[in-house]
Write a structure and sequence with these properties.
Two copies of one chain form a homodimer.
Chain A (H helix, E strand, L loop, with lengths): L2 E7 L7 H16 L2 E7 L5 H12 L5 H8 L1 H16 L4 E4 L6 E3 L8 E4 L2 H8 L3 E5 L2 E3 L5 E3 L4 H13 L3 E6 L20 E3 H9 L7 H10 L3 E5 L7 E4 L12 E5 L2 E9 L5 H11 L4 E8 L5 E8 L3 H14 L4 E5 L2 E7 L8 H12 L6 E4 L3 E7 L3 H11 L18
Parallel strand pairs in A: 1-2, 1-9, 2-6, 3-6, 9-11, 10-12
Antiparallel strand pairs in A: 4-5, 7-8, 11-12, 13-18, 14-16, 14-17, 15-16, 18-20, 19-20
Helix pairs in contact in A: 1-4, 6-8, 7-8, 9-10, 11-12
């Protein structure tokens, strides 16, 4: 049977006619290799922002149905133009809106979820030798209105179509040639991973390494869709997202992620009492502020110090709220720091390797980097540092965990010297 | 029963947010006066051209289905934004694509004809107190694809909806405040007509006075839709298109139209033989050149002189073709003139008033203007002149037929002096 590929191209990959011609060549190459292809497109770079600006100028709170009708045109434009190019070059193609492609969503506007895909329209075009070019990011809701899936929703469209059609691979083309062991702009020795597990991918995305939308990755995981991230700008195999668990031959830590978008807040010296955490998190939640890391530990006098991190944009508001909360709790004081960075080591093998923490803390100590906070999960270990140490920490950890490109071959997960 | 108005706004009336806010006020005023309103919109000025340029850059012969998918987004954008504005100002509104509004077309892409309107969706929204904001210029064809109606098709959408819903009036808002007795830029005394008959409107449109698309006017005529042209820029009653025949109280000539977009070609001294006209028009048609006026008359030696007019853009090509044709027909020569103008007097009463030709030729003779060609129809008389006489001819005829604004009251259709 013929191979079926879903090929999704993001905004920079369809930015202008030259880029769209390049997309045509990629699709053509896949067809020449004997595969059937369903294309999913984002809007041309800048188009969605232009439309959102129009909507916001019309109203600070645009009607959600109309907002969706407006911004869904961006993907319709790019998919029509690609279809014109394909047809003009003797590749029969049909642009399809989310509605025409059978993408059925729930009734949330602006962030709808795909509930079902009626595969008949896509199957019919494929059977006729036609390339369906699907407008990503959109579907039709139960009352027949257009609904959009939220930013990055085109990834989800592609994954959902791949799952529904049981495609052999869902290929997400972006402006990077795969998933890296760390951000190459900060860690020059970072290298592309041939494979990464779903869980690692999810941790990386939630830590700020935005290659793929987390929702799309989770969707892929649910249906075990073979998912590959690759570049539309340079040839290469990209990175395959796999669903296998820990593999003894893989390095334990597969990547170093980081961000400097958070701020840290602490209420000091809270008299021990029931419900401290619930009270503090409650007042913060009431102000619609999201909390990331949370730590609570007693001080030497039996009082509680309660620390958490928020997005840096919410820092000033959160600090004011905490200073009130501190009075209410008879705590000593509330302080904060918005010049912090979070650095994380990620790897599915981490849980079973107690040596990871040892390498991580040894490395930071050798470089003289004080650690302010630590949290761990099954597959990651994160530390909060003064942001001035971010680059040094990321690079030295990348080296220590054997991720640098020159060292990869002879990597030994736990160096003898550690 | 509540009055029902269809209000259609063209490109300059929806050019930007300020203009769209103005549209909102017009719709709001109609609703305050107790009417239900269905709005039909064109794309924002410039948007359709932007999309056509994209299509043509992608291919000199873009796939028609994809071309329609692409350019139909222009009207979706303007109708979504107006709906955002209306909802934000407490006027419940829903943008509707041609598909959602039940506009069913034949299967011609780029110039589809409306075959039926399923009125249920519009009726349903109106019954719920919602303003349907319909994307003009588009519908859905028998196989479920989007089809566009061709340039100016939004007028047709509005008229078709008015016919289907048996609306009390179809109001076409443009950047002029009605239909004039002549072009005010050339004839300063030109004035707005309160009423004009359908036939006169059709002649004026075909003569270059492009206030309304001819197809839309014909459609209105077929269903006797009360049609009004008015301005979205200034208040006023506009001009009502009526279906009554000649009215004794009306001036016989209601307007003077003109254009300078044509060129004249003549094959001289063709030996009389069967099929001369068919041969000449055949070779011209093969070159895809449209012909407007056609005259054939014998010269004093029994040879035929065959004259016709074409669009000025086609002049050089047509002349080259005619020079070949002249040889083939053993004719004396083929010549042309692209510095001509056509001036027409229009009025439903003309046919029954033999005095019209007399006034027309007397007036031109008094001004010393040579007439090169003459054609007549039931309701118009057109003359071709050297283009340098255009303004003089238009103004003197406008005066002679009593159309000048100061003279209107005491107008006598056939002046005693003529």
């Amino acid at each position: 049977m013929k191979k079926l590929l879903i090929q999704k191209f993001g905004g920079t990959s369809v930015a202008d006619l030259d880029r769209l011609r390049n997309v045509m060549r990629i699709v053509q190459a896949a067809r020449s290799n004997g595969a059937d292809v369903v294309v999913v497109l984002s809007a041309m770079a800048g188009e969605t922002d232009r439309l959102i600006t129009l909507a916001k100028e019309a109203s600070t709170t645009p009607n959600p149905r109309e907002y969706d009708n407006l911004i869904s045109t961006g993907e319709m434009i790019s998919s029509s133009i690609l279809s014109i190019l394909l047809n003009a070059n003797n590749h029969p193609a049909k642009s399809m809106t989310g509605r025409q492609a059978g993408i059925e969503t729930d009734d949330w506007h602006k962030k709808a979820h795909i509930e079902n895909i009626n595969i008949e329209p896509l199957r019919k075009e494929l059977a006729a030798g036609i390339i369906p070019v699907v407008a990503g990011f959109q579907g039709v809701n139960p009352i027949g209105d257009t609904a959009t899936l939220g930013r990055g929703g085109s990834d989800t469209t592609a994954v959902a179509i791949a799952a529904a059609l049981k495609a052999d691979e869902c290929q997400i083309f972006t402006d990077v040639d795969g998933v890296y062991t760390s951000d190459p702009r900060v860690v020059p020795a970072a290298q592309r991973l041939d494979k990464i597990t779903l869980k690692e991918m999810l941790e990386m995305a939630s830590l700020g390494a935005k290659v793929l939308q987390n929702r799309a990755v989770r969707f892929a995981g649910r249906y075990q869709v073979p998912l590959r991230v690759l570049s539309s700008f340079v040839d290469g195999p990209g990175t395959l997202i796999t669903y296998e668990e820990f593999n003894m031959e893989k390095p334990i830590v597969t990547s170093i992620a980081f961000n400097r978008s958070e701020a840290k807040l602490t209420v000091w010296g809270i008299p021990d009492q029931a419900g401290v955490a619930a009270y503090i998190l409650g007042v913060v939640a009431e102000a619609n502020i999201d909390v990331d890391m949370i730590l609570q530990n007693p001080d030497s006098e039996g009082h509680i110090n309660f620390t958490f991190t928020v997005h840096r944009d919410d820092y000033q508001r959160a600090l004011a709220i905490l200073q009130d909360a501190a009075k209410h709790l008879n705590a000593r004081e509330a302080t904060g720091d918005n010049r912090i960075a979070k650095v994380s080591a990620i790897g599915v093998g981490m849980r079973t390797h107690i040596g990871v923490g040892k390498i991580l803390f040894n490395t930071l100590a050798q470089e003289g980097i004080p650690v302010q906070l630590v949290t761990t999960s099954e597959i990651k270990m994160s530390v909060v540092l003064d942001e001035k140490y971010l680059e040094l920490a990321a690079r030295s950890l990348h080296t220590a965990f054997g991720l640098d490109s020159e060292l990869q071959e002879e990597f030994d997960p736990i160096p003898a010297t550690a």
